[in-house]
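=== RUN LOG ===
request id: a7f3
mode: sequence -> structure
chains: 1
length: 137
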Amino acid sequence: EEGGAAAFAAIVGLCSIGFNISYGIPIFLKLVCKPANFPVTPYAIHRHLATPFGILSCIWLFGTSALCFFPAHGPVTADNGHMQWLCVVVAAVFVVAALNWIFNSRKHFKGPARVGDKPRHSTQKSESRSEGMPKSS
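=== RESULT ===
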């Protein structure tokens, strides 16, 4: 492959893997952890079907992610340039993300606010705007 086509394939593969894993992790954790207070939504699957569909979804999402690492053309030799560069790109993204976590994010990242938590930041400006407004019921 030419350099541009190989780079494009690696970037598309990285995006596909990231997308698949971002869907697969919550499904997998719901299968493994079995949270008792998991919210039921109007679109929830019947409880007897949720486990088989969750297993099937995990197999599909993680399986297709693994397939992205295989080269599109074969055989791969040192001379023909058919190497799949996705493993190098994923490793580089992982290293950059790990370094970012170690040196920056673990100190500053607070996570999303949970229901019932107090607001993290209150500003005088937002409080003063609501003083003259009628309270809604």
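=== NOTES ===
Helices lie at 3-33, 47-67, 86-108, 124-130.
Residues 113 and 121 are 11 Å apart (CA to CA).
=== END ===
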